[in-house]
Write a structure and sequence with these properties.
Layout: E1 10-12, E2 17-19, H1 24-29, E3 36-38, E4 48-52, E5 55-59, H2 62-75
Parallel strand pairs: 1-3, 2-4
Antiparallel strand pairs: 4-5
Length: about 80
């Protein structure tokens, strides 16, 4: 990557992802999810990604992520 390039998106790592879609991390790694990228050493994950029923939410910490994931997955996102 050149210094002039800007990385857009939220770095996501497997340890900071809660989802009901098992292949979401693979899809992100392929670049097929707009606005998200796989975390690496240069772009570490700093936030949690929660996805339930296709709705993606960024959570600032593990406790909030788990709270959102479990409340949505048991009650529905809407």
């Amino acid at each position: 990557m050149r210094k002039s390039q800007v990385v857009l998106g939220v770095p996501v790592s497997e340890s900071m992802l809660l989802t009901d879609q098992p292949d979401l991390l693979t899809t992100i790694a392929r670049g097929d999810v707009h606005g998200f990228m796989l975390a690496d050493n240069a772009h570490p994950a700093t936030q949690w990604l929660v996805q339930v029923d296709g709705v993606k939410i960024i959570a600032p910490d593990k406790q909030t992520a788990y709270m959102l994931f479990y409340s949505w997955s048991t009650k529905g996102a809407y």
